[in-house]
Design goal:
The protein is α+β, with helices and mostly antiparallel strands and 342 residues long. 42% of the residues lie in helices and 18% in strands. It has a single domain, classed as Beta-lactamase. It is globular, with a radius of gyration of 20 Å.
């Protein structure tokens, strides 16, 4: 099926560009509350599932063994902007287990945050693996391997016990087999399994509703959520939606972006999970679509993120990035459903 336009980009009186995509909102028992577009096509969740990749860090006792608190756990769930605090904390997580940056397998890239980029360039420094937005996740995985006496080399490979635990966690919570036919590799070299948007939304509904979990996993999930709400700056960074919204509404929403236009999250008080995918992978569209959705479910979120505008190089506003009429009408239905359930 052809997906509808979710986001429009205007210039003057005209729509200059547009982005198609799909959205799913489900309950923890799998009931579809809201869908728009093709939500059955397998999609790679990318970094949106870092909280689930972090679960073994807690469940194996590794975090307790090395004294990891809320900052370290939040960074293990992060797609961070590479600030000095982010890089320093990733380095500390490694130092705590007797390792350094050379043990990481995520690769180096410039910080995602423009301020962090400028700071690095002014200092005449090259980016390191610590600046990789996934360095906290990788440090946590190395810690788990170290604690359990597993090989440190190749911890990123699908055959390694670290990744097998992540795979088992995802299969358990989605109820899907997630075979090799649906496996790809993320930008940081870790395996990533594609799944329908409805299954991705189900993951997050179960995460925030603690559905289908034993006591141990409930404790681990609680620790992850509370860590991210306590340290939202570490989950993303200044001005990023994940940070801004969770800082202002802790306990009301957990949300996490992923590459290639993916966004997922959950609303604990409603027991709902959501997942969306922008077909062309554009971040400006996924950020706009997720805020449109969040503001309908949580009216208190309105105004937290600045209106997204298109500006000339002189700073003059010449257009805007907005939800399409199709998305707005669909969200009217979602808002009515949520209101009726309260």
């Amino acid at each position: 099926m052809n997906n509808p336009v979710l986001i429009e980009v205007t210039r003057g009186p005209l729509v200059e560009s547009f982005h198609t995509g799909s959205v799913a909102v489900v309950t923890a028992d799998g009931t579809e509350v809201f869908t728009l577009g093709d939500v059955s096509r397998p999609v790679f969740p990318r970094s949106a599932i870092k909280a689930f990749q972090c679960l073994p860090l807690i469940e194996t006792g590794t975090a307790d063994r090395y004294g990891y608190g809320a900052p370290e756990i939040a960074l293990a769930c992060a797609s961070h902007t590479g600030t000095e605090r982010h890089a320093a904390l990733a380095a500390k997580m490694l130092t705590d287990i007797g390792l350094d940056e050379d043990a990481l397998g995520c690769g180096a890239h410039m910080p995602l945050g423009s301020s962090a980029q400028k700071q690095l360039l002014r200092a005449g420094r090259e980016p390191s693996q610590l600046h990789n937005n996934c360095s906290g996740k990788h440090a946590g995985m190395l810690a788990t391997a170290k604690y359990l006496g597993e090989p440190l080399d190749g911890y990123w490979l699908p055959s390694h016990p670290v990744q097998k635990r992540v795979h088992a966690t995802l299969c358990d919570l989605t109820g899907l087999p997630l075979g090799d036919d649906l496996m790809g590799f993320d930008g940081c070299s870790l395996p990533n399994w594609a799944m329908p948007l409805t299954s991705m939304a189900l993951l997050f509904a179960r995460l925030v509703a603690f559905t289908g979990m034993g006591a141990e996993r409930r404790r681990a999930v609680t620790r992850i959520l509370e860590s991210c709400w306590a340290e939202p700056e570490l989950v993303a960074g200044p001005g990023r939606a994940d940070t801004v919204v969770m800082r202002r509404l802790p306990g009301r929403i957990f949300m996490k972006t992923g590459a290639e236009g993916v966004y997922c999250g959950g609303f604990p008080e409603h027991g709902l999970g959501f997942a969306l995918k922008i077909d062309d992978g554009t971040t400006r569209a996924s950020a706009g679509a997720v805020m449109a959705l969040v503001e309908r479910v949580l009216p208190e979120a309105k105004g937290l993120m600045a209106r997204r505008t298109v500006k000339s190089w002189r700073g003059k506003e010449v257009g805007e990035i907005r939800a399409s009429a199709t998305l707005e009408r669909a969200l009217d239905r979602l808002e009515a459903s949520v209101s009726a359930a309260i």
